[in-house]
UniProtKB/TrEMBL annotation:
PROSITE patterns: IDH_IMDH. It comes from Aliiglaciecola litoralis. InterPro entries: IsoCit/isopropylmalate_DH_CS (IPR019818), IsoPropMal-DH-like_dom (IPR024084). This is Isocitrate dehydrogenase. Keywords: Oxidoreductase. Gene3D superfamilies: Isopropylmalate Dehydrogenase (3.40.718.10). Residues 5-331 form the Isopropylmalate dehydrogenase-like domain. It holds the Pfam family Iso_dh. The keyword ATP-binding does not apply.
Amino acid sequence: MTQQRITVIKGDGIGPDIVDSALQILDKVGCNFAYDFADAGLMALENHGELLPQETLELIEKNKVTLKGPLTTPVGEGFTSINVSLRKRFQMYANVRPVLSFKGTKARYEDIDIITVRENTEGMYSGLGQVVSEDGSEAEAMSKITRAGAERIVKFAYELARREGRKKVTAVHKANILKSTSGLFLKVAREVANQYPDIESTEMIVDNTCMQLVMNPHQFDVIVTTNLFGDIISDLCAGLVGGLGMAPGANIGNDCAIFEAVHGSAPDIAGKNLANPTSVILASVQMLEYLEMSDKADAIRKALKEVIESGDRTTRDLGGEHGTTDFTQAVLDRL
Ligand code: NAD
């Protein structure tokens, strides 16, 4: 069997620490991956003079599977988000963000198991927008939804639901106000729902969804929604299971996939050995499932569960007093 090559982008801020943690764990369970390391973000700007160097793009394309730390996009300096650029360039149209309760966190709820499927290439993140007055006092942005884009993401969500034995898909929208864009998304979601009579289909307006997620999150199973709503809702969902340190995400297209944490580079705790690496470890678990290595994925999930439940060397966001390296060692000890 040929050795699977993985492109690894360690990223900025807490990225290198949490990605190193995930790589140690992948090696410990005997994945036998070959890693090609690539730069992106601030690190790439320093080393290559650009945020997203050509050789990084080539490696992502060549290996097809990438594990990535968070990247810092400099604010207000004319840079387009690197993450948005990557998702568009490789047509990774589905952003799959699962949240799962682990006992032992400081979360307000137990037994949360929700997957947000976020459209990743259209909507308010189309990148179409500008300042329209000379004095800079007026700006506009364009949201773009296409029938093809809506159909492929909603179908993706239902296929995922079927594959994983899920019971319900909720389409989240704002069609009452955003009649053209969200209206088209909802229309297509209803049409696709009719093709999946074995799965319960519901729809909900995004503001109500936020309230319902806080008041009664157990009613949700799979959520499918447009780009901006999915971005916001998935952070809310991370809060239900103990915070951003617990939330992974996969960007999936027909050809390439990038696995990463939901959170950003966390500059407030960077370089302090404080970050919870669970987010990226769970992203690598998603990667193993994508590569059909479920036994190894299960082993890592089980070890993580044991560490968090017992409070053995957990990080501060989980109520512990330890750092990234101690937490990683606690997981390694159980593997
Ligand atoms: P953030 O997600 O980096 O941090 C928000 C809060 O969560 C901070 O208090 C941080 O300390 C905490 N946090 C995040 N991850 C944690 C972890 N693993 N363990 C413990 N605590 C954790 O959001 P931000 O500060 O708004 O953004 C910082 C930078 O990240 C920005 O440049 C932004 O553009 C970028 N960003 C990148 C991605 C990505 O690469 N996918 C996603 C979001 C934001």
